[in-house]
Amino acid sequence: MHIQGFTCNPFQTNCYVCHSDGEGVLIDASCSTPEECAEVERYIGDHGLTIRRLLLTHGHIDHILGCAHLARTFGMGFWMHRDDQAFVLQAEEQARVFGTWIEKPPAPEGFLDEGDCVSFGGASLEVLHTPGHSPGSIAFYHADSQAVISGDALFQGSIGRTDLWRGSLPELMQSIFGKILALGDAVRVYPGHGPDTTAGIERQTNPFLLSAP
Prior knowledge:
Blueprint: E1 2-8, E2 13-20, E3 23-27, H1 34-46, E4 50-55, H2 61-64, H3 67-74, E5 78-80, H4 85-89, H5 91-97, E6 110-111, E7 117-120, E8 123-129, E9 138-142, E10 147-151, E11 154-155, E12 158-159, H6 169-180, E13 188-191, E14 197-198, H7 199-205, H8 207-210
Parallel strand pairs: 3-4, 4-5, 5-6, 10-13
Antiparallel strand pairs: 1-2, 2-3, 7-8, 8-9, 9-10, 11-12, 13-14
């Protein structure tokens, strides 16, 4: 499986296209301008990909800015965890709070939970429920390539904020240690913001993890 990242919008949020054997999924609709959306769509077209699913790691505003456009472009809605659907349904209110604008996204097409699998081409992503940053945060793990799309749970040298609605630091730490780091030190982590890293590097050097009880 190949993972291609795009960094978009004023929040510098990562969008990922994961693909295998001519099919792919798009994870997190962070593109917020016509130019950003066109870059993602151009990559998909240049590689002759058929997009099978549109996915969200969670529903915070910086990850859903392009939902309406991409849903219209690919003729399908996004899949996410049910516990974060309120963020999408109240996207315009979210945008006002953060001083930005969003085209109202469609309601989620469906919901994913712990242990579900999303298949495309020769690849399959396992869904991990990783609450803490938000109640419905999820990560997508590809066992064959030892890679996880972690959303805003874990970053290079940092962790997701927990001061937003229904955030919880104890839950986030449980998600990081029990779900992401538990995958093994060799697993490459593709976060919602910043560069990719590995579980081992973060276990050994991330100050938020080293100081955890």
